[in-house]
């Protein structure tokens, strides 16, 4: 879910900023489409690859920590048993209940290592890290939402005030994505939506101003 929200946020905001910059420079709708699509593809691939490498690095780290824990369980069982005992003692277990829990956990080395990974190191299981899936979700989300600011500029739309319509629709989409992100993260969805909308507005306004300024200088 996080990958999809990340891709959606960046896709729609960066593309809208590009549209605003080109519009500020008073360039044609064709240029908007060309530069916008180039941005979607290039930036989408860049984000996807960055997410892939980041997720893979996390996965490699978790795997290395698991190997270390497996070695310690195999070669230092007394120390690792005491660590399990301390973990559950801190949780309020004591006496026979504590020893029963320790016995059950240490009876299975895989379960033992899993507990150490989660409760001692605070690391997620390897299965939660999927680099290719994360990259694909990020790219697709970036592509789908990144196209939204370009829709009004497509050749078959014979509408006036393209930038105004794009601004309204994009603003609604940005707010919706921000609000959804707030719901997922259990935050105030209205505040999350407004925060994301503010980021989009600042980005687009800056791009528009720069485009207008450069067009007068060049």
Give a concise summary:
By secondary structure, this protein is mainly alpha-helical.
Structure description:
- The chain is 81% helix and 0% strand.
- The protein is an all-alpha fold and 218 residues long.
- It is elongated.
- The two termini are 44 Å apart.
- The chain folds into two domains: 2-55 and 131-217, no CATH class; 63-127, no CATH class.
- Keywords: Membrane, Transmembrane, Transmembrane helix.
- InterPro entries: Ccc1_fam.
- It is a multi-pass membrane protein.
- This is GMP synthase.
Q: Main attributes?
A:
single chain, 2 domains
The tally of strands reads: 0
Q: Please tell me the overall pLDDT.
A: 87
What structural category arises from helix and sheet content?
A: mainly alpha
Tell me the domain tally. 2
Give the overall silhouette.
Answer: elongated
- The percent range for helix content is over 70%
Which regions have little confidence, pLDDT < 50, spanning 5+ residues? none
Approximate strand percentage: under 5%
The SSE order reads HHHHHHHH
Biggest sheet: strands, sense, closure?
A: none
User: Helix count?
Assistant: 8
Distance between the termini: 44 Å
Q: Write down the Rg.
A: 25 Å
């Amino acid at each position: 879910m996080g990958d999809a929200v990340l891709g959606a946020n960046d896709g729609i905001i960066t593309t809208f900023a590009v549209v605003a910059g080109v519009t500020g420079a008073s360039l044609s709708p064709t240029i908007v489409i060309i530069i916008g699509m180039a941005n979607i593809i290039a930036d989408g691939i860049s984000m996807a690859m960055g997410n892939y490498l980041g997720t893979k690095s996390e996965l490699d780290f978790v795997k290395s920590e698991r190997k270390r824990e497996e070695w310690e369980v195999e070669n230092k069982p007394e120390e690792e048993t005491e660590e399990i005992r301390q973990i559950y003692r801190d949780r309020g277990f004591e006496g026979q209940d504590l020893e029963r829990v320790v016995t059950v956990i240490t009876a299975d080395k895989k379960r033992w290592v899993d507990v150490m990974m989660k409760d001692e190191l605070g690391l997620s299981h390897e299965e939660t890290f999927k680099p290719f899936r994360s990259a694909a979700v990020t790219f697709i989300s970036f592509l789908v939402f990144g196209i939204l600011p370009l829709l009004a500029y497509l050749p078959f739309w014979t509408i006036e005030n393209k930038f105004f319509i794009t601004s309204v629709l994009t603003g609604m989409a940005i707010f919706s994505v921000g609000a959804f992100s707030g719901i997922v993260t259990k935050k105030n969805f209205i505040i999350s939506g407004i925060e994301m909308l503010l980021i989009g507005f600042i980005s687009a306004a800056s791009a528009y101003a720069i485009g207008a300024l450069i067009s007068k200088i060049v």
